[in-house]
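Memo to structure team: turn this sequence into structure tokens by end of day. - J.P.
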Amino acid sequence: MDLGDIAKGVKNAAPKLEDVAKDAMAWVTQADKRTKAHETYLSRIKDLRNEISDAFFVEDASGGDFEKLRGIYRSDLSKMAKNLELPKTLKTSISEEAHYLDQAGSPYEANFDMHTILSDYHNRIAKLPPNEKKQFDTLVDLYKGGPFPVGGSLDFASGALTHLRKLDPTQQDTFLKMLPDWEQSLDDLEVAARLL
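Reply from structure team:
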């Protein structure tokens, strides 16, 4: 190969590399915006929880305050969930918990801790590139359950993602297709995905 061929190859590759760089910068910007928004919602919710504690866990708590603070919590929780672009099962779980919050007759029956699972989810996906976030969300949705399905699904997805990273794209597809019916360890599934 002579220098002319090399120069031509570099010239042809340059626009593609520029596109890759633009995509990478767009992802960093999007991830940064998502993180800043999440931190804003989380900060507001932490302040709100202090108000909830001050307003309700005293003898003269009023029902009007409960309605108002519950509405604010519910609104910020919804914004946090939308910002994170949740996987289907996590979105369903949060929706169900929010429904129970709406039905609560008093602060003692209400769950004001739903934001913690969203914060846990955020911490796990915050630095993942788009393809890995998509895989993580798929793994969350493929989780078969257990005593703590929401937290368990995040632990499961984090563990399974380490196996996916070791595989090429075709092997990753095989891994994900076999996962729902797989009964053995994820280590064994990784080996099987390589061999098939």
